[in-house]
Write a structure and sequence with these properties.
Layout lengths: L4 E4 L9 H15 L5 E6 L9 H14 L5 E5 L4 H13 L3 E4 L3 H8 L23 E4 L6 E6 L3 E6 L7 E3 L7 H11 L4 E5 L6 H15 L7 E5 L2 E2 L15 H6 L4 H9 L14 H7 L10 E2 L2 H14 L2 H7 L1 H4 L21 H12 L8 H5 L11 H9 L2 H16 L4 H13 L5 H13 L7 H8 L1 H16 L1
Parallel strand pairs: 1-2, 2-3, 9-10, 11-12
Antiparallel strand pairs: 4-5, 5-8, 6-7
This protein binds one RNA strand of 76 nucleotides through strand 5, strand 7, strand 8, helix 5 and strand 12.
RNA sequence: GGUCCCAUCGUCUAGUGGCCUAGGACAUCACCCUCUCAAGGUGGAGGCACGGGUUCGAAUCCCGUUGGGACUGCCA
């Protein structure tokens, strides 16, 4: 007995969506649970109007980033066109299909007040032949019902009467999603169809097609298990939309989310590991994941929680790892890929050793790797990037602060240049002006780093060196006087 | 409108008839730690949508109501 064969079948019509990523992940879990499991990537590119090759690259690279490597594929649905055409003609030959040249308006007008949804079956018995306007419709059965047994939800039944004679191919013979998907799943011997809840209404039709194909092709293939995952929603509880919501996986990568954190978070949407733990690696997920444990209700994609998780993962990184993983944001010129956000410093200004020294202090302060540059830019730039509001408040409009800075130039000129000595020196400096350390460090921090927040000040000063620190304080005093 | 799905703190969830005085996590609030900001520590507030049943016993089972969602394409 071979293992499960699952597929992730996105259509390349936009950025790689977080909801798609979650579907892919759950498929991947199921495949990896069995040593013989197979995870297939199939690009569903039959909608030539909207597909773009660049989106295919996006899907592949995002999946690669997340560590979900397909065992087979990427296949192109379009490469399977001959099989689709063959399925179409055998279904037609077996009487499952008929031609229909009704336009949407004609159908609506004819139905009038009739509230039954879908096509009214007008062309069912007209025995039309192929033409430039005749689409292929499936002769849906009437009476009785069809039961979808769903591994997540249990049995869901649909009355045959609500399944209309749906279109399976355009007049050109171009096969549409419902059929193409089934033909490919049969060819790939898919055992589990794990996809978003939005496909649940398609499922009875696809089962009908599957059975029709069993008959028409003379080859009976076991119907796969189906599992429909709850949708991901936004704060308004609407399905995440490519237009309104930040759903592009690529964007999260660019912002400095770690793939392992992202995968962990995705796994938590609609599922949870055993016990009171949430931070789990993918091996644990693979081991524990069961489709029957997946939640039935929609989940809100909470970026705040994602960010928190990411911070946890960042802090858990060994220091060298952290430094290395910062490179797309800190030294993109040596990195295998670069963030769209370039650092404010140049290749020549960046000092790897200096960054390595400040890194441990930065590591525990950031939730996103893209937050790193703003935290350390003062170490590499010739002059700090000033936060004007902070400068005005802490230095320009504060004469005591300026007095403190003036004294600092003198004291810092002769102190031992170490973080602890600078710390003690600043305490004394503050005391001489009735300022506690909290107050005393602020103008120095602002003068030297340009900001009021950042890594611990005295370690920063030590790294910067006496000459730079003194000249920055002088520059700040000059700037305040201007 | 029709079909289908769903319903535990603001959010993600644990919970499969007694272990529930409903647990954890994010967010939030307070305090502690502290050179800023974080991180960390301690504590607090906060939920079974509602109404009926079934049962000795219901967050858990059944029915109804209400509310939300998906779908309703010659898209996928």
């Amino acid at each position: 007995m071979s293992g499960p064969r699952v597929r992730f079948a996105p259509s390349p019509t936009g950025f790689f969506h977080v909801g798609s990523a979650r579907s892919a992940l759950f498929n991947w879990f199921v495949a990896r649970q069995d040593p013989e499991g197979v995870f297939i990537l199939r690009i569903e590119d039959t909608d030539t109007e909207r597909n773009r090759e660049e989106w295919v690259d996006g899907i592949v690279s995002a999946m690669n980033w997340l560590g979900m490597h397909p065992d087979e594929g990427p296949f192109r649905q379009s490469d399977n066109a001959p099989a689709h055409a063959h399925a179409l003609s055998s279904l037609m030959a077996a009487g499952y299909l008929y031609f229909c040249d009704c336009t949407g308006e004609v159908v609506t007008a004819r139905k009038g007040a009739d509230k039954t949804p879908g096509y009214d079956g007008f062309c069912r018995d007209r025995a039309l032949g192929p033409s430039a306007t005749a689409a292929y419709r499936f002769r849906a059965p009437s009476g009785g019902e069809i039961v979808v047994s769903d591994d997540v939800r249990g049995d869901v039944s649909f009355s045959h009467d609500v399944i209309d004679d749906f279109v399976v191919a355009k007049p050109s013979g171009a096969v549409l999603f419902a059929l193409a998907n089934v033909v490919d799943d049969r060819a790939d011997r898919i055992t589990h169809v794990i996809r978003g809840e939005e496909h649940l209404p398609n499922t009875p039709r696809q089962i009908l097609l599957w059975e029709a194909l069993d008959e028409a092709s003379g080859e009976k293939i076991a119907i796969p298990h189906y599992a429909h995952l709850p949708v991901l929603v936004n704060e308004q509880r609407k399905k995440l939309s490519k237009r309104r919501d930040p759903v592009a996986v690529e964007m999260y990568r660019d912002q400095g989310y770690l793939p392992e954190a992202f995968v962990n978070y995705l796994a938590l949407l609609g599922w949870s590991p055993r016990g009171d733990v949430e931070i789990v690696d993918s091996d644990t997920c693979i081991q524990q994941f069961r489709l029957s444990d997946v939640s039935h209700s929609p989940a809100f994609f909470d970026v705040k929680k994602l960010a928190h998780l990411n911070g946890e993962y960042i802090r858990a990184l060994p220091l060298e790892q952290f430094v290395q993983r910062c490179s797309p944001w800190t030294s993109p010129w040596t990195s295998p890929w670069r963030s769209e956000q370039a650092p404010p410093w140049s290749d020549a200004q960046f000092d790897e050793d200096r960054f390595a020294k400040i890194a441990p202090l930065v590591q525990e302060r950031v939730a996103l790797l893209s937050d790193v540059p703003a935290m350390v830019d003062f170490l590499f730039l010739d002059a700090p990037l000033f936060d004007d509001a902070a400068f005005d408040k802490t230095i320009r409009r504060d004469s005591v602060a300026q007095e403190l800075l003036t004294k600092a130039i003198e004291k810092f000129g002769e102190v031992d240049w170490s973080a602890t000595a600078l710390h003690d020196c600043t305490i004394l400096l503050g005391e001489s002006l009735q300022l506690n350390l909290r107050k005393a460090q602020a103008p120095i921090r602002c003068a030297v780093t340009g900001r009021l927040v950042g890594p611990p000040l005295f370690e920063s000063l030590e790294l910067l060196g006496r000459d730079v620190v003194l000249s920055r304080i002088e520059a700040a005093l000059t700037k305040a006087a201007a």
